[in-house]
Every structure is written in structure tokens, then in C-alpha cells.
Amino acid sequence: MKCTSLLMQDHKTILRALEVLAQMSAQVEDGKSVETEDIEAILRFLRVFGDDYHQMKEECALFPELRIASNSHERPLQQMLFEHDQERSLIGGIEDAVYTKRGIELIHFANRLVALLRNHIYKEDNILFDIVEKFLSPEQDDRVVAEFDKFETKPELLVDLRRMEWKYLRRAA
Asked: Is the pTM of this model over 0.90?
């Protein structure tokens, strides 16, 4: 399987988590309570699966190989890295808002994170991955996929995500 296909599968999972976070934010905005443990769980998912697993695969395996294949695409890579840093910062903002019990800030940072990540995923799927497909040789793609295999995530994260989807998205439907 191509490296871009694997990353796009991750994107679908991350988008599911964003739907949960958006619903949590909407509930807080409507004056309804959201359990702190659930917000912490979705943030843990975004940190561990989204950052430690997915973004690290991009930053440590794909981006270096793409730099070797094409120096002319440094700008899109820099933009992706910048957005990764923004995502990390926004997650930190949400965590601070949870711990200081500032619902307005939670809504603000959660909505910004959801919008940023959805846009980021769109750009990777529709722009960056086209560049990858064009410039990475099959051998380079194989090397990237082999590097991806070194990254692991915790299966319980997906169990938590399913639980929160059931709890927050089913209720909203």
C-alpha cells in the first residue's frame, strides 16, 4: 500500500475525532456540560494518535524522503510543519481552558483547532499527496511505508474514540 493511502486512512480517523470535539464545543456553547474526562480523552487521542503517531510519521518518514526527491517543494513542507505546530498549540490552549474552567476559551480553541485540522487534512490529501505521488519513486514510497511500520499506536485510543462518537454524535443526531 502507498504511504499516501496509509496517511489518508489516518486522516479519516482524525476527522472522526474532530466531529466529536466539534460536538463537545457546541454543547458547551449551548450551556450544556461536557465531562472533563471526555474532553481529556479526545485531547489525548489527538495528541497520541494525531501527533505522536500520525504527524510523526509525516515529519520523520515522509517529509525527509520528499525533500530528497524534490527540493522545489520545501515551501509546502514548511507550511505543513507550521500547521502541525499550530495544532499542538491549540490543543495546549484547550487543555488550559479545561483546567481553568474557561468555557469560552475552550469553545474558541476547539473551533479553531477543528477548522485548522480539517483544512490541513484537505491540503495534505489534495495538494501535498499529489506532490508525493508525482515525485516519490516506488522505492522511496516503500522506504516510507517501512518507516511507518516502526510507529505504533494504542488500540484503546480507538475504543475511546468509538465510545465518544456513540456518546456525543449519536445524541446529536
From this structure: yes
